[in-house]
Amino acid sequence: MSYLPRLKGEYRERIAGALQTEFSYKNVMEIPKLQKIVLSRGVGGAVADKKLIDYALEEFTTITGQKAVATLSKKDVASFKLRKGMPIGVKVTLRGDRMYEFLDRFVTVALPRVRDFQGIKADGFDGRGNYNLGITEQIIFPEINIDKVNKISGMDITFVTSADTDKEAKSLLAELGLPFKKN
Questions:
Q1: pTM of structure
Q2: Which residues, 6+ apart, have CB-to-CB distance to 19 below 8 Å?
Q3: Tens digits of per-residue pLDDT, 94-113?
Q4: CA–CA dist 160, 30 (Å, integer)
C-alpha cells in the first residue's frame, strides 16, 4: 500500500463529508479542497548582499523539503539601486502530498512554538476563497537550526483553495486544523 499523509486521509474520510452536509452540496466535485500552499519572502537586502538570497533559498528548502526558487525583479528602480532581473525574493509552491505534510507540521509543531499564541486572525481572506498569513520569525519551524540563522526574518504563506466564498474556505481550513481566533 502506498503512503498517504494524515491530513489527506482525514480530508477524504471526514472533512469532505462534513463540508458537504454543512453547505449542502449536491455534487462531490463542489466540495472545496486545498489546491496549493505558497511560501514567499522578500529579501530587500539582497541588492547589496547576494548571499542573503542563498541563505533564504537554503532555509525555505529545509523548511518545505522542496527546492525553493529565487524571484527576480521585473523593472529597474534607481532609488533602490535595483536592476531588472536581480534576485529579490524567494518562493516555494507546494502541492499534493508535500502540501498536506507541510500543513500538518505547520499546525501541529510550528504554530504552537509562536510566543503568546492566541490563534491566527480570520481577516486574511481575499474574497475568492484564498487565505494569506504572515509569520514574523522563521525559527518557529523545528527544521531551522537557530545557531545557523544569520538574520531572523518572516515569510508570507498563502493557502489557495477551490472554495468560491471566504466562509467556505474558512470552514475548510478550520477543519484541516488551522486555529482561527474566536471573536
A1: 0.89
A2: 25, 31, 32, 168, 171, 172, 175
A3: 999 999 999 999 999 988 88
A4: 16
